[in-house]
Task: inverse folding
């Protein structure tokens, strides 16, 4: 398909639809839909698609939207949905169920601030609250990544070594409602990339079974261990999906993380989503001025790419983590995971957390400059730095 100028929501909805249509020779597609700003256009796009074999089900709540996806997936259909913010919070019970049932559901989430107070702007706190569920998580920095990772998510989720749901996230309005040149997949490409889904544990009329019944603790432990082992196989499976993606679509969806000028950097920023795009331009400018700064853009949050991050920061003495989220009493979630990745391995590394764009505030080049200036002046890490506040208002 020729490159089109589309919003992130259009890209996501279209890609979900053609991925679902690619399963028409098997058991078709299922999508539960419920509107919530700023993702509503995604499910509207899906609802308008002329599926050969599939059903889009409008429901009364986000909880039921995931319930429809669960039911469809248990029946062997390629299943998906989309949501945002408090819609995800309302959906949490069924999000958990989908993960523990090992269902290869794909969900696109448009990152929006959780309320109250009510706020429709970008904040990753809504999807990061799901970080401890058995869901693979991706974070996108442009509309092409939204398209590519949504398509790749189905192949990864449906791999019999994995069989875990996948969450693909993008920043509200910055991507969801912004037009960008995007190479959308053709139906023929989707058909070639995605094999017919055959879910090993799908429900069958000729082989009735009970799912999700009461078990003893040892059975629960076994199931949790199996999910953990599947997560451990995700990085290798992802790379295989990535290789096949390049063969079919002629472009690279990217590794679990991208590095930019990290080989000799003494200072490295860690960021995700559109914040990473802004940070890259600042790093480029500071590099031109002779500063040894670098950037790591993390694309895959779950499972967290610990070894790749350690390798990327090998030369660094200071790391600044940019979080567009807040965990009460702790600080940024990405900061927590970054510190954990280095625990017991690098006593010489200063890792400082910065809270940026909380509640949808602008993250400008000046914001990133302030982060680098603060980081450069530090000889010890402190509590999270609130970059959107005036210096005299910050409690370090």
Result:
């Amino acid at each position: 398909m020729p490159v089109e100028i589309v919003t992130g929501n259009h890209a996501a909805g279209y890609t979900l639809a053609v991925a679902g249509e690619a399963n028409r020779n098997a058991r078709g597609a299922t999508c539960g839909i419920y509107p919530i700003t700023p993702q509503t256009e995604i499910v509207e796009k899906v609802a308008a698609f002329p599926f050969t074999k599939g059903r889009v089900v409008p429901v009364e709540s986000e909880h039921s939207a995931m319930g429809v996806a669960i039911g469809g997936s248990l029946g062997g259909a390629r299943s998906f949905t989309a949501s945002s913010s408090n819609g995800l919070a309302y959906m949490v019970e069924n999000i958990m169920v989908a993960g523990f049932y090992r269902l290869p559901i794909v969900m696109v989430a448009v990152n929006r601030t959780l309320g109250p107070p009510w706020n429709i702007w970008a904040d990753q706190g809504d999807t990061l609250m799901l970080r401890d569920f058995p869901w693979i998580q991706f974070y996108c920095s442009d509309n092409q990544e939204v398209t590519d990772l949504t398509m790749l998510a189905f192949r990864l989720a449906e791999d019999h070594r994995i069989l875990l749901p996948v969450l693909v996230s993008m920043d509200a309005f910055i991507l969801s409602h912004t037009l960008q040149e995007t190479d959308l997949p053709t139906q023929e490409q989707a058909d070639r990339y995605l094999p017919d889904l055959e879910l090993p544990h799908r429900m069958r009329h000729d082989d009735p079974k009970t799912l999700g019944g009461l078990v003893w603790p040892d059975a629960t432990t076994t199931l949790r261990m199996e999910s953990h082992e599947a997560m451990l196989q995700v990085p290798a499976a992802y790379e295989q999906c990535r290789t096949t993606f390049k063969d079919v679509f002629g472009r690279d969806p990217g590794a679990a993380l991208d590095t930019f000028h990290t080989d000799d950097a003494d200072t490295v920023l860690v960021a995700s989503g559109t914040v990473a795009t802004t940070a890259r331009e600042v790093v480029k400018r500071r590099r031109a001025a002779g500063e040894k700064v670098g950037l790591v853009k993390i694309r895959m949050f779950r499972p967290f790419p610990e070894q790749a991050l350690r390798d990327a920061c090998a030369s660094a003495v200071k790391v600044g983590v940019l979080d567009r989220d807040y965990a009460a009493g702790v600080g940024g979630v990405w900061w927590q995971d970054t510190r954990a990745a280095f625990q017991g391995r690098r006593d010489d590394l200063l890792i400082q957390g910065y809270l940026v764009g909380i509640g949808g505030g602008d993250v400008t080049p000046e914001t990133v400059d302030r982060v680098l200036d603060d980081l450069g002046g530090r000889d010890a890490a402190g509590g999270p730095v609130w970059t959107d506040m005036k210096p005299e208002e910050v409690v370090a």
Remarks:
- The domain at 4-249 is CATH 3.40.50.970 (Rossmann fold).
- The chain has two domains: 4-249, 257-393.
